[in-house]
Amino acid sequence: MRKPLLPLLLCLLAGVPAALAQAPVAEAPPAAERQAPAEPPPAAQEQPAPAAPARSVEEDLAALRPVLIGKRYLEQARKRLAVQLARLGRSMDDPETWYEDNALVAREFVADVRIMYALEFKDGAQLVSHGMMKGWGMDIERLHQRALANLDRAHGEIAVKPVGKLPWLSVIETEDGYAASRVLLHWRWAELTLKLGDVLVLGMPTRDVVVFTSTLEPDKLAQLQETVETVERHQGRPVTRRLFQWTPQGWQEFDAPLQQPVEQQGEQREQQGGGERKVVDASAKAEADVARQPADAQEGGQPRQEDAGHEHRDQQGNQPLQHRQ
């Protein structure tokens, strides 16, 4: 007989109070402490266990939200869930399908960040399983788009405030659990670039904190990285310590050594251009000197050895410095 789907709660991620989780089966007390149970009244024997409130499919889908989580934390949640499923499925003849239905729905986002999906209700939050998704007649792409639309409608505003002692850093800090999820609303960040510029580098250390900057100065990027690592290490519901950069095509992992301020790139181009001009000028001078030597030889014979040596040193002095191969 196939068991119903388990309520997969966000308490697996330590983000929801444990009181909202399904109560575990209590272990039997030692024999010395066992007492004969009191005979319950007949009416109590016939009372069914309280059932979860019945909701329609549309009510469930209206509560759907995307949740960001780091890859390693997702693996930890899956291991804890697997232990619970194994304990409950020991008495089943064929638990494989049941395990698949209760597996968490997740997809890749960028780098080590993954997207899960949850139903947000006043009495708690429930993670979405593959069995629930199939029951709604949806695939993961339709589920994702519906979750984004719900998030944008309910939590789409990006309230940005500067960090007091580090004014070049801005932070999104919320208590709704969806600060990091707002990173998925790419069009909202495109609007933000109109105010702050095309450069946006951010970190999402936890589900409740996003910190970002609009500069590529190395010292300030180092402070951003340090801030992200500190928050991820000490606050709950962690996501990742990595940094990400906004692009018109989407978010990508930020690689600091490959990034340079625009002003520095311009200076390097000017220096390279100056070096090329020096090489051209030196080559032209050398060709002119070589062409002049036959004429000097015809008029006054071969140049003296010491004069030729001086001329050779002069030409070397005019050549730009080059790296040896």
Characterise the protein shown here.
The chain has 325 residues and is an alpha+beta fold. It has three domains: 8-22 and 55-154, no CATH class; 157-258, no CATH class; 268-318. Helix content is 42%, strand content 18%. It contains ten helices and eleven strands. It has helices spanning 42-45, 57-62, 71-88, 96-102, 130-135, 140-155, 186-196, 218-234, 262-300, 305-318; strands at residues 8-9, 64-70, 106-110, 113-121, 124-127, 161-163, 166-173, 201-206, 209-213, 243-247, 250-253. The chain has a six-stranded antiparallel sheet with strand order 6-7-9-8-10-11. Strands 1, 2, 3, 4 and 5 form a five-stranded antiparallel sheet that branches. The longest helix is centred in the last third of the chain and has 39 residues, at 262-300. The radius of gyration is 34 Å and the shape is globular. The termini are far apart.
On the 0 to 100 scale, the average pLDDT is 74
Largest sheet: 6 strands, antiparallel
Q: What percentage of residues falls in helices of 4 or more residues?
A: 40-55%
- Portion in beta strands: 15-25%
Number of domains: 3
Helix and strand content put the structural class at alpha+beta
| Total of helices | 10
- Which oligomerization state do the chains in this entry correspond to? single chain
Trace the largest sheet across and list its strands: 6-7-9-8-10-11
C-alpha geometry: globular
Backbone CA Rg: 34 Å
What's the end-to-end separation, in Å?
75 Å
**What string gives the helices and strands in order?**
EHHEHHEEEHHEEHEEHEEHH
